[in-house]
Amino acid sequence: MEPAINVAQLIKTFGKIKGKPVRKALDIAALTVMPGEMVALIGASGSGKSTLLRHVAGLVAADPGAESRIAVHGSCVQSAGRVAPDIRRRRRDIGFVFQQFNLVERLPVLTNVLAGMLGRVPLWRSLPGLFTEPERRLALHALARVGIAELAGQRASTLSGGQQQRAAIARTLVQRARVILADEPIASLDPESSRRVMEILARINREDGTTIVVSLHQVDYALNYCERVVGLHEGKIVYDGPSATVSKELLRDLYGSELDDIEIPAAISQRVDPRRQPGHGRLPTGVTAEATA
Predict the structure, then answer these.
(1) What is the spatial distance between Cα 103 and Cα 164, in angstroms, rounded to a whole number?
(2) How far is CA 241 from CA 3, 235, 246, 247, in A?
(3) Residue 150 burial (CB < 10 Å; 0-12/13-18/19+)?
(4) Residue-level pLDDT at 17
(5) 43 DSSP assignment
(6) d(Cα 62, Cα 44) in Å, to the nearest integer?
(7) What is the layout of strands, in order, in the sheet containing 69-72?
(8) How does pLDDT run across 175-214, given as a tens digit for each residue?
(9) CA distances from residue 227 to 103, 156, 224 in whole angstroms, order as listed
(10) For the chain, which domains are there?
(11) How many Å apart are CA 154 and CA 84, to the nearest integer?
């Protein structure tokens, strides 16, 4: 089966002093996500979670390198540090849910959701926003799936944060995205809104078979809603395996002192570090349990 997402030899550095890079934001040898998976990216602030998602979406180009390549469902998003020339067409299959919703606040919710069709409708219709009645019904159905169909006519600015995020998810449904990348989608939401947003993403994954990769700072949500976890530390993958085996020792290595401010299930404290159990968690190529202990 062809991977939904395939990342190889991804390196990204930021900042230069006398022409030399000063900070390596990403250094990923390989990452593969199969169709229908729901994967959580976890790690401390600055670990590279958001940067990785933006590279997969083709919003950021990697450092130049002959071996660097990112593909989504076999379609090249970027290679050797260059984003594909037809990236807008390739992004049709990639929905992106931003932390700050990215809605046009002065426009109605329905219009914001219909924006998900802009990559698929003719230019002459997309510029003035001339959508057909079947397209509007599709957008209303998407809003119904996320539980806010009754708000279709309201300006986006009148919605709560949780409602705006649900509208943003509905936009990816209208887009018919085969892959949804969600960048800290619940970071600014209250616990109840966070739960609803994560349940909606999990339901879309389960019912539609949509591949979902979500970066989360909230470890408890990552472990509760995603069967697979990829742990990032200083731009490198230090753990890739089942969420059911993530231990407090692993989280301490990922978050350091930040862990004291993170809510984690009490049961995790009783788990053995999966990196010490061969076969339980997938480690990146060249990384051993001893090296990460």
Answers:
(1) 8
(2) 17, 17, 8, 12
(3) exposed
(4) 59
(5) -
(6) 21
(7) 20-33, 5-17, 69-72, 75-79, 82-83
(8) 999 999 999 999 999 999 999 999 999 999 999 999 999 9
(9) 30, 33, 8
(10) 5-292 (3.40.50.300)
(11) 37
| pTM, full prediction | 0.88
The CA R_g of the chain, rounded to the nearest whole Å, is 20
42 DSSP β-pair partners: 231
Cα-based torsion angle of the residue sequence 179, 183, 184, 188 in order, rounded to the nearest 10 degrees: -110
Q: Give the separation between CA 130 and CA 15, rounded to whole angstroms.
A: 43
The predicted-structure confidence for 162-184, as pLDDT tens digits, reads as follows 999 999 999 999 999 999 999 99
Q: Which residues pair with 5 in a beta bridge?
A: 33, 72
140-158: per-residue pLDDT in tens?
A: 999 999 999 999 999 999 9
Determine the 3-state secondary structure of 8 from DSSP. strand
Rounded to whole angstroms, the Cα distance separating 102 from 113 reads 11
Vertex 272: Cα angle to 25 and 263 (nearest 5):
60
Residue with the bigger pLDDT between 284 and 172: it is 172
CA 1, distance to chain mean position in Å, is 22
